[in-house]
Amino acid sequence: MGMDKNWWQKEVVYQIYPKSFCDSNCDGIGDIQGIIKNLDYLQDLGVTMLWICPIFQSPMDDNGYDVSDYQAIAPQFGTIADADELIEQAKQRGIKIVLDLVINHSSDEHTWFQQALSDPDNPCRGYYIFKPAQNGQPPTNWRSIFGGSVWEPVPGREEYYYHTFGKKQPDLNWENPVLRQKLYDMVNWWLDKGIAGFRVDAITFIKKDLTWANRTPDGADELANCSTASRNQPGIGTFLHELKENTFDKHKCVTIAEAPGVAYEELGDFIGEHGYFSMIFDFRYADLDIASGSEWFKRLPWTVRELRDKIMVSQMALQKHGWGANFIENHDQPRAATKYLRDAQGNSDAVKTLGAMYFFLRGVPFIYQGQELGMTNFERQDISEFNDLSSIDQYNRSILEGFSPEQAMHFVNLRSRDNARTPFPWNGEQYGGFSIVKPWLSMTQEYPELNAAAQQNDPDSVLNFYKNLIAFRQKGPYQDCLIYGDIEPLESSSDVIAYRRSIGETILDCWFNLGGTTVEERLPQPDAVQVWHTQKGVDIQNGTLRLAPWQSVILKSNTKNGGN
What is the pLDDT of residue 470? Predict the structure, then answer.
């Protein structure tokens, strides 16, 4: 499939949750100087771009995704001077910086919202969504993503303001052109500082159903999920095109859309030749264990075959229209080793094969901090141990839906966003070298053994495996194929995910055994030879590949026969 090459397609992105990465000033909270201090670690790992979760001024009700000043840095993270230093220090190491762009909503402590509350005639009132009460009740029966009504009463008035997420995160009114221009000016201000672009947060929520009609209730709280009326609504393209034209296009920057709700047939609008963004995250396979991304108690059983099918459907759709951002972990997901490997989460061979399986897909690979160590979920005993707003809401929702406190705790432990937000374990000392004081969030239990220092000099460690993985994609003999090549699925056994990458005359067949038993796979090309593998030795006899439990193999073929 022909497609123009873009500079950002070659990147390997490392996501940093700054609050939990490294504390440089001994207050128990990670900060920008903590990132700067560890740039050499990231350079040695081989990543080429850092996505930094929000560092803007914020009351931290949702850990920075509630911005009170877009052009200031939260004091707990540092200063604008620190941000400038980070951009420059990273540049010197060949690493680009991408920031989180949170423009669906602001904090209720933003000056705009405070002015809107203090004076109904203030122009800033038009920057948000206010509606009158309906017979003393909220304007609609929509449920927010974090639980409860999307409508919060305004003190002293018979009206409400709208919030898709937490009640301290009022949605910005994208119908207001003055508000939009202010956002564009802010985006350009950051791009002028030299960042490479943005990961764009929750962007498909900026357009609402302006009929403001009630929806059919779908829970015991008699509310309806707001996504049906406030996500990827008709007309959103006008806003997204204008955003791109006024900001991203001027700087030729990279943009990665968090855009839930986009149908595969709509991908061309988002990431096509003239799409709104450079690439997009697809969450369909990330949420295969739950019936709804916002209801963790609706658990679903799944198989490797089902995971394989979801990944391949996603890959083929992305390939048809543009470019994808591939991930198995992020700040909103539990640890991949626990979620995808279950009982094998502590098996380093399994962790490596899981990593390789997604890393060689077509698209830009994203690594979340700690993933390169094989970090796993925690096991909390009480809801009071959680910081995440969504986790607390899901615990209460589970009980409201009829589950016991023990069952509710089980659901939250499995899916809590706090699983990925525990402090990074740099070494086995108290608090894992993250800080010398008690961190803002408790460490995971295994950090005295599972940490960066323990893995640095171990050639068989997960950390060194990721270094080799990155080097093979970026600098190996098949880099063009692994970066730019097409993809197609290959037939495989039930616990095996297999696909073909190809460009020109180069054909690579990639096999990943995500099961605990040895399997035999009939090769499309009997004379294929191995060019990369995990574990020791590759067993190929008479056109049959024998894969050991949790083994990965890449074979070089000579013709394109055999795909399906």
Answer: 98
pLDDT in tens, 2-56: 457 899 999 999 999 999 999 999 999 999 999 999 999 999 999 999 999 999 9
Residue with tokens 């990330």: 286
pLDDT of 2 reads 46
Q: Which residues contact 505 (CB under 8 A, 6 or more apart)?
A: none
Tokens 């016991």 label which residue? 404
**Domain-wise residue ranges, the chain:** 476-557
Long-range contacts of 171-177, Cβ-Cβ distance < 8 Å, separation of 24 or more: 171/104, 171/105, 171/128, 171/129, 171/205, 171/208, 172/103, 172/104, 172/105, 172/106, 172/127, 172/128, 172/206, 173/126, 173/127, 173/128, 173/129, 174/206, 174/207, 174/239, 175/210, 176/126, 176/127
- Say which residues have a Cβ less than 8 Å from residue 404's Cβ, sequence separation at least 6: none
Mean pLDDT of the chain: 95
Q: State pLDDT tens for residues 436-491.
A: 999 999 999 889 999 999 999 999 999 999 999 999 999 999 999 999 999 999 99
| Torsion from C-alpha of 267, 273, 276, 280, nearest 10 degrees | 50
Give me the residue label for tokens 């900060």: 31
Give the DSSP letter string of 147-181: SSBSEEEPTTSSEEEE-SS-TTSPBB-TT-HHHHH
476-557 topology per CATH: Immunoglobulin-like (2.60.40)
At 249-275, the pLDDT tens digits run: 999 999 999 999 999 999 999 999 999
Active site residues: 201, 258
Q: How far apart are CA 56 and CA 100, in angstroms?
A: 9
Read off φ and ψ for residue 308, nearest 5 degrees: -60, -45
CA–CA separation, 508 and 387 (whole Å): 44
What are the CA-CA distances from residue 348 to residues 250, 357, 463 (Å)?
45, 14, 10
Single pTM value for the model? 0.95
Q: What's the pLDDT score for residue 3?
A: 55
